Amino acid sequence: MMEININIISAYIDGEVKDEQVKNEILTKIQNDKDFEIEYRVQSLVKSLIKEKVVYQQTPAKVRAKILKSIGSGTKTQSEKKSFFADLFEKPSFSFATAFVVILAIALIIINRPGVVEKKDFAIEQLGSDNMFVQAKNNFNSITEGKLVPQLTTKNADEIKKFFNDNGVKYSTLVPNISDWIILGAVVSEDHGEKFAHHVYVGKKGELAYLFQVDESYLYDHEIISLSEDLIKYLDEGNCYSYESNGSVTLFTKKANNICAIVSNGNPKEIENTFCSL
Amino acid sequence: MFAFLFAIFKSDEQKLNEEFEREAVPHMDSLYNFALKMTGDSDDASDLIQETYLKAFRFWDKFEKGTNCKAWLFRIMKNTYINTYRKNTKEPDKVDYEEIENFYENIKPSSTDSAHLERDIYDNLLDDELSGAISSLPEDFRTVVILCDIEGYTYDEIADFVDVPVGTVRSRLHRARKMLYTKLHDYASDKGYVSKVKIKK
User: Fold this and answer.
1) A28-32, A145-149, A233-237, B194-198, range with greatest mean pLDDT
2) Which residue of B20, B46, B124 is in closest CB contact with A63?
3) What is the least distance, in Å, from the CA of A107 to any CA of chain B?
4) How far is CA B194 from CA A48, A147, B74, B187, B190, in A?
5) Residue A167 C-alpha, separation from nearest chain B C-alpha, in angstroms
6) Which of A19, A89, A143, A155 has its CA 20 to 30 A from that of B172?
7) Which residue segment(s) compose the domain that A36 sits in?
8) For the segment A173-194, what is each residue's pLDDT rounded down to a tens digit?
């Protein structure tokens, strides 16, 4: 029997030992040698944990779109330029003066354009049952009316994250511990086979704050859940949007790749200060 | 004449673009996950994958058709990572492996019945914690773990990718998993699932 180094255990686990005789010898060692057996179990445990627990993340939709746009522009630039400016100057009917007037007109239009509104009332753009804003408000109303109860009741943020993980939420979730707020519990909802994460906090005065988070790629796809593009752009720029109505405040903010909706019946200013800076 | 040359040039360029989209773009998620584990930060990962794809697109005519496109992209990403990100971060590359080995020998269960190896103990482990443990490995070890256990590469492919002999891949993987086990053990003892171990010096 050849001398077998314990390091070969990893290769054995990875299916990299092809020789049947060597495989049998390793197996015999694992069965009869305690060190080999423990090493085998340690290596197998770690490998299986990585395989099962590490969430395979999709490229964020915004990044994917940027890359595809950059790649596309590499080939399109020349033809696009030719079709407009090049053609314009090549046509004999257009003199240099005509082109100058066209450029001047474009410049005047740009200069006289009304100023870009930094924060507009995004709430009026949010329509339809698949809209995240609408869903967040409806879910919050259902919670306060007792129609929607947590599937998991716990104060522990790790347990909530595990609950999201175990119940098929495919994106990384954010469950922060917030001073003066206690976590109440969580719900995983399902829409067209996709799972979404929701959790609820209770404040010192008994006020509720409901947090609904979605990976931004779902909102770019527009297939299951939507949000107006203006609002997504506003959040992308690092802003936090706040809207008050009927005694509740709704916030939208972006953390890492997640768009978070927070609805609360607490003091709007306090809610904004607390949840906009999660 | 010029129009004819322009048409030829354009069709070649279009062909290259189509080839790139067909061969390179499908590997984007794989590369993003690699970037995420290497940088440990979603913004850095996004920047890294964008740089990688732009470089790959620029040098697409240098890619040898019929060879492994994914490995080629990984190599570009690794070089970009080394040139751009690693020099900006404090890389914990210099590890005292002897110390890790010592710790490992102390926490390694003395009996196969030991609770330390029970799968249930680690059931509460979250993606973030495991990803954090992987990200904290020295780069050489982190790379082989990601490529083998997450991406599913063979040892030959990893050896080709990181440019080391297969034996080195095997020993790095073996050591990397031992390091990860010590980190997971730490996690389990912090949560009170296993007793804390005092290191014998």
Assistant:
1) A28-32
2) B46
3) 32
4) 20, 41, 38, 9, 8
5) 13
6) A19
7) 8-53
8) 889 999 889 999 999 999 888 8
Nearest CA-CA distance, residue A163 and chain B, Å: 10
The shortest CB-CB distance from B117 to any of A16, A45, A67 is to A45
Question: Quick one: A257 and A237 in the same domain?
Answer: yes
C-beta atoms of A43 and B174 within 8 A: yes
Asked if A161 and A143 touch (Cβ cutoff 8 Å), the reply is no
Which candidate, A52, A140, A257, places its Cα nearest to that of B131? A52
Q: Are residues A142 and A198 in the same domain?
A: yes
Count the residues in chain B.
201
Query: Is the whole model's pTM more than 0.90, yes or no?
Result: no
Q: State whether B177 and A46 contact (CB < 8 Å).
A: yes
Query: For the CA atoms of A127, A130, A136, A140, what is the dihedral angle to 10 degrees?
Result: 100
Q: What are phi and psi of B95, to 5 degrees?
A: -105, 145
CATH 1.10.10.60 matches B97-190: no
Q: Do the Cβ atoms of A123 and A133 come closer than 8 Å?
A: yes
Q: What is the mean pLDDT of residues B188-194?
A: 75
Q: ipTM surpassing 0.85, yes or no? A: no
Instruction: Give the separation between CA A246 and CA A248, rounded to whole angstroms.
Output: 6
Q: Residue B175's closest chain A neighbor by CA?
A: A7
Q: Between 1.10.1740.10, 3.40.630.30, 3.30.70.1290, 1.10.540.10, what CATH number should domain B2-88 receive?
A: 1.10.1740.10
Nearest CA in chain A to B148: A14
For chain A, the domain total comes to 3
Evaluate whether residue A98 is within a structural domain: no
